Structure formats: C-alpha cells, structure tokens
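Support case: magnesium ion complex. Customer-provided input:
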Amino acid sequence: MAELVALEEAQNLVLSHIRPLETETVPILDSVGRIAAADLISDIDVMPFAHAAMDGFALRAAQIADASAESPVALKVIAEVAAGDAFTATFGDDECVRIMTGAPLPPDADAVIQYEIVSVVSGDGLPGSTVAFTAPTKLRNNVREAGEEAHEGEVIVRSGELIGTAGVGFLASCGVREVPVYRRPRVAIIAIGSELVPADERPPFGKIRNSNSYTLAACTQAAGGIPTILPIVSDSLEDLTAEIKRAVESYDFVVTSGGASNGDFDFIKPAVEQLGDLLLTSVNMRPGKAQTFGLVSGVPVFGLPGNPAAAFCGFELIIRPALRKMQGMTALHRSTIRARLTDAVRKKDPRRIYLRSTFSKTSDGAYVVTPAKNQSSGSFGVIQRSNCLAILPEGSGSCEAGDEVSCILLDVPEEVVL
Ligand code: AMP
Ligand code: MG
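Agent response - structure generated as follows:
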C-alpha cells in the first residue's frame, strides 16, 4: 500500500481504528481536561439555602414599601447574622437584621438592602442601632435562592462533557468527589536511527542527539496521553520488530520516528507489514510525506518521519486526534482561521504545505501570518518560535503578500471553534 492519500483520508483511516479506552474513576482534581464517562448528580441543592448576596440588612419588603428620600423608614437592628450563622427568629415590623454575604436569609425576611444605601440614624449599624431606608425594594432583592445552581438529584455534568477548572469546584459543591473518565492512553515513543545517541550524551562525529522522542513525549502529554520514552532502536529490521512486538504488549499506542522512507535503512514499513496490517504509508503533506500507520496485535502503531518538523506535523495532525478519541473527546481537529500573508511564498512542490509561521493581529484588527524564513523539516527551533501552521493548498502555486491562507493555531484547544 504505497498510495499517497490526502491528510483528511489519513486522519479518518486512523480514527476508524480507534475506540475510546475503558473508563476509570479518579479524584475530581485529576478529572480536569478529561471527559466525564457518566452523568454526575448533585447530592444537595446548591446553594443549599437562600442567602444574602451582599452585606446589608435583611427585612420584609413590605416594611419599607412607602420609604422615600423625603420620608425614610427607620428600623431597629436587633441582631447580626454572619456567614456560617443562622438567625431563625421572627422580627417585628419596626425591626431588621444586619446580615453578611453568604449568611442564610432569616426565614422571616424576603429581601436584603445593601449596606451602602442604608443610613445609620443612631449607633454604628450594629445590633442596638437604628438605620433608615430611603427607597422601597423588590422582593428577594440581593438574595441568592436555594438550588439556583443545582437541585438535589439533578444531573450537573453530562456524560461526554469536558471537565474544566471551574467544573471541579462545581462538582465539589455538589458532593461529587470522584469522576468516571476515559483512561489516558499509554503511549510508547521509539526513536529509530543508528545515528542517534541519548540526549544526555555529547554526540561524537556522525551522530546526533535523539530529540524527537522528547518532542513526541511532550506532544503526547499535551494531548492528554501518558508517554514512555523507550530506548533508541538502531536501523535494523530485527531490532525494530522485536521492540515493536514488546511495546504493543504494554501500550495503547506506539509512536516511532525515523526509518520512515524507502531508503536502504528504513525499516518501519516492513516491520509493521511483517508484524501486522500496514494501512498507510504516505500522506500528501509537506513536511512529512512518509507517515506510516498499521495495527500490530490490534494496537495502533504510527511511524513518523525522522525529520523533526515532519514528525511534529504528523503527530499534531494525525496522532493527536487519535489520542483525543481514545479519551472520549469528540472535538478532534483544531479549527483553522484565515489570515493574510505578510510575505510572498514560493511553492514549487504540488503537495499541501504546512508552513511553520507566526500568527498575529494588526493594530486595525486584521489577522496576519508570517511564515518562518527557515522551513527546513530538520528544525524544532523554528517551531519553538512559531505559533501556527499556515496551509498552502495542494496543487496551487506561489502566494503573494496579502493573499489569504488558512492557519492552524497551535495550542488553541480543539473545543474552541474559530
Ligand atoms: P529518517 O526518517 O530516518 O530518514 O530521518 C530523517 C532525518 O531525521 C535524518 O537526518 C535523521 O538523522 C533525523 N532524525 C531521525 N530520527 C531523529 C531523532 N529521533 N531525533 C532527531 N533527528 C532525527
Ligand atoms: Mg534514519
């Protein structure tokens, strides 16, 4: 299967072999950024009781129905109720209760007048004082009602919802302490290449440090997966098949880089073919045409090109959506946004090109994109200094400054529709 397929076809092919993983129950703090695998239910009303939304005075609206600036209504302050306290007694028509934010509304009251618009007639506003009201109030003024956010027994987070940072606090208020979520995929990262030395070594002449494994592990983490960097494998079919065979026993997804073309020492395709089903070998994209995908013992194995930028693009565009699907996510692809090129770009290659670029907004609000001068597929440093991939469609020729192109904003979550 040496067919060159469109990126969308490659993405769909890989996704068609991916299912959400099984679920696990985790403490709420570990559920952030993950998908709820069941409906979550509140065990109480939230808030559990009607309470003051402001510091002020609790009273019955009828007591001050006729109040005006010319004829204020004066009431005696008979008690103070703080957050955490309760005042459950009744009070007379010429009385009111000083109340703090978060304190339960006394059952005999139906409104709270904020402190700032009440004048103190005698005393200091504390119990024993007299205070005056110069305007009537609506019923339930400055009152947050019981159950305003959730009712006991109500579904507060639906199965399939992404749990966010605020959601964790919501769950805590509703008595949910653990959440069933989809398991994070365990991803094996294998660098292939006899020229590679571990990153903690100084490479002798002819060798280079294995940098791909670090970026691919970081990309895995950013996609919600759990990466393990396995030892470097030399350019040997035997070593590679042995390592992949081992990896598929313990991991949910295997990502390799290097050895991906058709050179004399490129073994990822024959290795996958020998061990399982080889389903994809090349994608119409640049950088990174040599993208290999297959199944070995039912486990997805993806062979990225060795060139750093090609490996990065292949991961972000094809593997990341798959890892998201494994976690029950349904927003799988990043949105694109249109921007005007600040510079002309020459395009001779008929493939679709992903230019490592910087996206920004001009002072008059227009979106513009500047492709990095260095588009070498051998460089991670350029991507470090970029924030998007500007897309030059397949087939079409060079672009002029001012032409509009689509850009994939890296680091903008898939849930954000641009
Ligand atoms: P390959 O896909 O094996 O032909 O590799 C293409 C280029 O990427 C070569 O220049 C390799 O040395 C380089 N390369 C391959 N693997 C890595 C790696 N793990 N880290 C950094 N560069 C790599
Ligand atoms: Mg190689």
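The chain has four domains: 7-22+183-326, 24-47+148-182, 51-144, 336-409.

Case will auto-close in a few days if no follow-up is received.
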